[in-house]
Amino acid sequence: MSCCSDHGHGEGHGHGCSPQSGEPISVQEMNRRKFLALLSIVPGAIATAAIGVPVAGFVVAPIFAPEKREWVSLGAVSQFKIGDTIQVTYKDPSPLPWAGVTANNGAYVRRTGENDFIAFAVNCSHLGCPVRWIASANLFMCPCHGGVYYSDGSVAAGPPPRALSRYNVRIENGELQLQTQEVPIG
Ligand code: FES
Q1: In whole angstroms, what separates CA 60 from the centre of its chain?
Q2: Alpha-carbon gap, residue 54 to 48, rounded angstroms
Q3: In ligand 1, which atom is closest to the CA atom of 142?
Q4: What digits encode the pLDDT tens for the residues 126-183?
Q5: How wide is the angle at C-alpha 10 spanned by C-alphas 13 and 30, nearest 5°?
Q6: Cβ of 147 below 6 Å from ligand 1
Q7: Which atom of ligand 1 is nearest to the CA of 160?
Q8: Could you tell me the pTM of the whole model?
Q9: What is each CA distance from 113 to 30, 78, 83, 110, 171, in whole angstroms?
Q10: What's the gap in Å between 85 CA and the centre of ligand 1?
Q11: Over the stretch 28-41, which tens digit does the pLDDT of each residue have?
């Protein structure tokens, strides 16, 4: 009788059964088969990790990268008229690899004097919708939930929890520059 029809006696004696022939197989043979099975799995796991880890890093790493603040040009100072508030766009200097057109950022710039400028974030502090400058009312209005800001960016009405964010600005060689930063939302 083979060991496969006699389970009670096969246990504890260092034997198993071959699924093909039903013949007893030794512990050594079982270990050899397990070792070979492991050998066939390990290269696949290594190959998967070799491909998967860099791809995951490419996608995830930029999200956790520390914020980069950089100075970007908004153009010649002479193009800004004292008293005017105008919308400008600039390219995010360190966009996520898949950012596409979302790498284009906006700001409102107001020239308040010969060498004085204020730059406001366009994003509403409530949920980030782009606000509009309404020159005739001297207000920033958010179209999403009716948020309203005074001309200095402070909240006039609606759900925004805080004033519009401001950017640092400077003049370099006749050029207005803005320092990029993350805009807190919500
Ligand atoms: S996003 Fe502007 S009020 Fe809600």
Answers
A1: 7
A2: 10
A3: 2
A4: 999 999 999 999 999 999 999 999 999 999 999 999 999 999 999 999 999 999 998 8
A5: 70
A6: yes
A7: 3
A8: 0.65
A9: 86, 12, 8, 9, 12
A10: 21
A11: 777 777 777 777 77
Instruction: Check pocket membership of 121 for ligand 1, CB cut-off 6 A.
Output: no
Q: Looking at ligand 1, which atom is closest to the CA of residue 145?
A: 3
User: Would you tell me how many other CB atoms lie within 10 Å of the CB of residue 89?
Assistant: 10
For residues 121 and 183, is the Cβ–Cβ distance under 8 A? Answer: yes
C-alpha atoms less than 13 angstroms from C-alpha of 64 in its C-beta half-sphere: 6
Question: Is the beta carbon of 124 within 6 A of some atom in ligand 1?
Answer: yes
